[in-house]
Each structure stands twice: as C-alpha cells, then as structure tokens.
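Write out this protein's structure.
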Amino acid sequence: MPRRTPRTALDRLRTPRRTPKFLKAASICVLIAGLLSPTAATTAQAANTAEAAASNDYCGGQCSDILPPGENGNATLAQILLNQAFGTQPDHAEDQLGPYANLATGYSTLTDAKINSFFNDASFGVPSDQVASTEKPAGRGDVSIVRDKKTGVPHITGTTRYGTEFGAGYAAAEDRLWLMDVFRHVGRGQLTSFAGGAAANQGLEQEFWRDAPYTEADLQAQIDNAVAAAGDRGKQALADVNAYLAGVNAYIDASDSGRSFPGEYVLTGHKDAITNAGTIEHFKVTDLVALASVIGALFGSGGGGEVNNAISLLAAQSKYGVEEGTKVWESFRERNDPEAVLTVHNGESFPYATKPSSPQGEALPEAGSVTQEPLVHDRTGSAATSSATSASKTAATTALTSAKRGMSNALVVSGKYTASGRPIAVFGPQTGYFAPQLLMLQEIQGPGISARGASFAGLSMYVELGRGQDYSWSATTSGQDIIDTYAVELCQDDYHYLYHGTCTAMDKIEQKNSWSPTTADSTPAGSYTMRVWRTKYGPVEYRATVGGKKVAYTTLRSSYLHEADSIIGFQMLNDPDYVKGPKDFQSAVQHINYTFNWFYADSQHTAYYNSGDNPVRASGVDAEFPVWAQAAYEWRDWDPATNTADYTPPSQHPNSIDQDYYISWNNKQAKDYTAAPWGEGSVHRGNLLEDRVRKLVAAGGVTRSSLAKAMADAALADLRAEDVLPKLLKVVNSSTVTDSTAAAAVSKLQAWVTAGAKRTETSAGSKTYADADAVRILDAWWPLLVKAEFQPGLGSDLYTAFGNNLPIDESPSAAHGPTGSHAGSSFQYGWWSYVDKDIRAVLGESVQGPLTQKYCGGGSLSACRDTLISTLKQAAGMTASQVYPGDDQCSAGDQWCADSIVQRTLGGIKHGRISWQNRPTFQQVVEYTSHR
C-alpha cells in the first residue's frame, strides 16, 4: 500500500474558485500588485552603522550555526500566491536551505576556512556593511531590531529589560506569527476549528491534547505556581513574558492596520483580503503555556508505555512460562545492556528506575482485557471518514508509546585532544523539517540577557539553544522515565474510582471542534468532541481488568501541569552574570524539567547534565509496569493537587565535567541509568558518532572541521549496513554461495560496505544513490530477515507484541511519528541490536548481555545461513517500485525521493526537497578563543 505523508491544512493551498489556475488568471497579477504596496510602507530603512565586532563576544569568529529553510517564516497573501504560481520565495525564506543541504556532498573536503560556506557566522552583532534594516518596534526608543543582509536574522538590542523583551516578541511575530498561532491552537486542542479539518490537523491536535488536556484555569495556574516558586527570578520571568507578549501584539496591530499580516489568515477565512475584515486574536500568557505543553510533549517527555510492556510480558510468559518468559522479556528489554554506547563513559554509575529485586504493587492486566480509552466522540461529516479515523489511530499510538521521537545529536571534545588546546563542539536538536521551521534564530542583547541562537516560535523571550558571550550550549532528548501508569480501581460506574478508599468522580474535560471548507483546506465540514477523563493520577488512557476487578489505567507525568516551570532555567542560560563556567551551566539546566541531555563548551571546559524531574518512586515499584493507585505505591511525598513530589537530587542525574569527549544521539546516558524507550543495546545510532569521535580523539589534533566532518559522515551512514550487515554477510559467506541471485546480491552488499555503507548521491544533485542496488536490497531484506530470524522462535503473538514495544526498522523512507516520512531522522528505533546479538551468538562470538536463546535457524549456523540466503533472494527480486511504492511526494521506484527530506508545510510557502541527511535541524559548530 503506498505510503502517504500527513498533510496539514495548508499542504494543498488553492486559489479562490473564481481564479481557477495560478498561471492563467490575469486577475491574480492585479491582486498581487495591490497587496504588495502595503508591505513596502512598513519596510524599515537600513542603518548607517552597526558594531562590526561586539566587545562581549569571546568566540573570535569561530562560532557558526544553521537553521533551514530560512529565518523568514511569514508571508503575505501576495507572496504565497507568487510562491504557489511561480515558485518564488520571500526574502530569507529559504536562504539557509541550500548551504545546509550542500554539506551532504561537500563535507569530504571541509576545512575550517570553508565552514561558513555551509553555516552562518554566529558572531554577536552585525558589521555595518551587512546591515539590511534597522527598526524601532512600535516607535520605542529603548530597543532596536537589526537584520543582517545574508540571513535576515533579527539582532535585538535593548537599553531596558522591558524594551529588550518587547523587541523579542515583535521580531518573533514578524518571523513566525502564523506558526505561533497554529501551535497555540494545537496546545489547546483547537487546531481544526482554527486551520481546517484536514486529517493531519485532526491527528495533530488529538496527539497533544491527549497528553495535556488543560483547561484555561490549568494554564493560568501553571503561570501562578511557576512564578511563586521561583522568587525574584519568577517575577522577572513574568515581567519578561508580559513585555514579550506586548511586542507580539504590537506587531499584530501594526500588520493588521498595514495589511502586511501573514496571508494564511486570508486563506483560512480569518481575514478578508479586500475589506480587511476579520480579527487576528492577541496573544495572552496562557497561550504561551499551551505552546510550551506541545514542545514539552514532543521533545522533552520521556516514559510511558507501561501497558504495552505488560502486554508483551504476558505474551512472553504465555509462550515460555512465568519464569522463563520473564527472562526472555528482560533480555529483549535491555534495561541496562552492558554493550550499550554511553554518553558518560568513564564507568560512573547513576542508578535510576532499576529493576527491583522484589516488585511490589504490580497491576498487570488480564490477558485480552485491555482496551484503549477513546478520545474522539460524536463524529460528524468529514470527521467520520476513514482517513480521519486512521489519523486518530496514529495519533493515539504516537502519544502512548515510550518510543518518543526526540532525536538530536551532540559531539563535544575536550581541549586536551584538539589542535588548539580549546574545546570544540558540534551539536544541535533534530526538530524535524517544517516550513516555516518550528525554531527561529535571533540574537538578544539587553540588561541581564546576552545570547544568540534558536528558540521555539512563540517562546523566544530567551534563546533556548545557542551561545552566550563565552559559552555555547545545546540539548538532545534523553528519554528517561518520568511517566508512570497507575491502575485505578473503578467503583459505582466506569467514571468513578477509589482514591485512598473513597469513591471519587473522574473529571470530564471536553473540547468540541468543528470546521468548514476554506481556500486553504477544502476538507468538507465536520465536527467531533475530544473527551478526556481525568483522575488525581492523571488522564485515563486504557481500561482493563486486573484480578477480576475493573480498572482504568492512567498516566502520570512529573512535568504534567508544570511545563511553564522550565522558563527559569532558560532565563539563567541567557544571563551572563549567572553562567560563568560549567558548574553554573549545570545549575541552570537543573531548573529545566524537560527530559534532555545538556551539553556545554567554553574556551576551557566542557560539561554535560541530564535534566528532568525524576520522581522518587516507592520502594519495590518497577517503573516498567502499571502499579495500583494506592498510597503505598505513589511517588514519595506526592501532592495530587499540585502534582509535585520528591525528585532525585542533581547528583544522581548523569553529569560530568571535562570528560575526554561526549557523544549523544538519544542513546543511553550512563551506566545503570534506565531509559524508557526500548532498543538501547549493542547497536544504536549513537555508535555512529562514538566510533568516529573516539577515533579522532585517539589521533588528537581535532579541529572544528574534522569534528563537523565526523558528524556529516555519520549523517549519511546506514546504521544497519555499517554495524550489522558485516556480521550477516559473515554468516552467509560461512560457506560458498552457489545461488547466482544470492551471490550477486552478496557482492553488491559487500561492495557497499567496503565503500563506507553510505546513502549518498553519486554526485551533488544527481538524485541517484551510489550503490543504489545494495541500498534497495538491504531496505527490502531487513524486515524479511528480522521476521524470518525471530518469529519462528518467539511465535507470532510475542513477535507482534515485541514489535509494538520496538519497531522493526526505521529507514529514511519510513514514517516517523507525527511528521510522517521525509523527516530526515532515521535509525533511532529498530531491531538492529537484537539481530547483532543473535547473529554473533550463532557465530559463536562473545556476547555481553545476550538474548536468552539463539533464534536464527534455531541456533544452527547452517540453518541460519539458509534463512538469510532465502530472504536475501526474496529481497533481491523485489523491484524498486515494490520497495519504494511512492507517496504524495514521490513516484513509485524513486529511491532518492523516497529518502529525501521535505520541509513539511505549516504555512503557505513551499520548498523543494533536499537529499537525505540524518543530522540536527539547528546546528552549531563552536570553538571559543577566550573567556571572561
């Protein structure tokens, strides 16, 4: 069945029906001419002078960054229509996409001098001859916004704190107003009513509202509690937010009166292009909390999946018996695999969520009794179509899995191993590819703030990932378990439960949405109601029976009702008077409750810290499985009214200063530190970085370009081909391959491995892979060989259950959660570790933390070889059209296109596809030359 990539409301922008075709409607030219004139009146004049080199910049011109497709994420209706008709781009809408894409074929000859051919100069300030414009937002005298000629990035400088933050809000709205509006509605579960009822819009709002079904009172309480808990910094944060919002709303008013607002408001029916009738709603504080809830759920919320864990455990026990089945389950779970790549690799142990010797309070469901709690009710019209219900199913699966699509990577090397004697870092988050991008670049300079980097649109009162005066920082998603599942015993009916012995009513939270066709989204009219039942232990996600008792399974997240708390940590990171070294950095990120790995580099030191509110669980509770909702099994000192508890102290979080090097690609943080996702075993995509950086460090003399090359090389590697395929071929070649089809396939695969196992073009822009046949064969072979290797031994039920815990494969052309395929990030989750351990065991090689039995060929080398050759022949016989069946972006059989990265449209501007890379979306390359 052909894959389809999810579409948002604006994926298929259409002109009004009275102008049926862009290229043939002369009237559109008149419309464009009329619409262009207001924008010219609002263009600020360029300044004559600017600081060429900021006195507070200690990077010496050696800080660089990149964020495709471009800084400008707003487009007027005229610009959208021109883009749709002729492919023209607004200024700075995609000028970072080309340099970003070109690294894939240009990295092999990269030198320090060439870095800014692929990245931006991230120095503070703008040289006077590079100033494109200067404006005083709303006529204020205490802040200016300077934009540079090359990228249009806003450089905000204020003489007062209020003015600085006002400017940050104004610049954010200039660059991302439509996107900010989209995501405040996503966070409130109101996207379809705002942007249209496309199936992907339905799925998006359902995915996030299921995890954070907040009322307006909940959102306001988050602000009140965060401010009250943080003292003077909390008061300053609220003042910053209010100033930021004033700037956002000032831009809304200016763009409305000047008729230069984003054209998407016209295309979705919120504004009239002729009369200017309609309203763009002002932003308020609670909108930012709604935005933060989306970002926290998407990138910084590890855990969950306990019900699926229980289902697979029961399947294993049914297959093998309780004792042996539990051992089999544990071997596949790989809680603390001794062969897993680690970020803190000096042997230091940080025990967390470890398996108790005698589990207490487990509430495992009776086999076959689990049903998922329905979220969507009362569907009408297009909400009742098969595409809509399919989107709902995908959204639920994504929301409830422990396999969070966090992504992001980091490579940091101590100065002891660099050519200059100073630390070097190449790091950044993989936040997917969108148009406009979720992140935006900015520089902010004002009282108590001095930083440049990326921030999520609508939350850019501070730089969230970037650089200060003499230090840089970045993050990767960590995934440690801060979500637990509780079994609440029902009483009276299905909507009452026992809380400490008292029958208590669940809270019903509803969001009713309806939509009608618009120019942007022709989805027919429809409506539905999202309904969540909340308990003191969190929202209900499943229902089942346990020991004959009816229960509801709820999920409790430590950051639930606390997404706003992290603002204090980001405020500290931007404060040059707070962060003066690695310990200050670690102290700052301790105030961030999102589950992230944080990295730091200055001219002398490197550092690492794992953030998140890790709850202290009751003695004997196994975090892998549901437990009874009883006082004995609650988090220590848990207060349900505020969802606060005791959390593990900072010293128990993986942390380090000045380790020889750090790598992270969402791999295991440290010895004995259990992460919620499955798959942290002997083969992980973190190995692609570990192998390359370890080799560089061993040789010494690391440079910015050599570390960037290591990242770029790993970004094109096929993890399966680099780390598992050689072992598979060792089995296949254990005897002479006599079958001609299999022999030809082996020859192609071996040649690919010898060439480096990359998924790369023959030459820049060829849109054809080198070793294309080998790539096709492995893409076809992997799911076939995994099934043939494991299903006979596990049985179909257990094989399927384990597949629900950990996907079999995640090649570049596969779908990736809410963003669909064409998302770049690949090889985060898959069975590569299982295959690696099993094949090595069959070969008689040493395996630490082995599976409990040998699966391939039942442990017989010859039988395993037969299985591999049989499936290899099947894969080799599959055509490109069968392996890459095509989707809404690509024709069947187009291998390059199937892998290619698409800037997923969240607005009216579209961009071309780029060749696959598995690398951060926003990325920094830094080496500081001095320190304050």
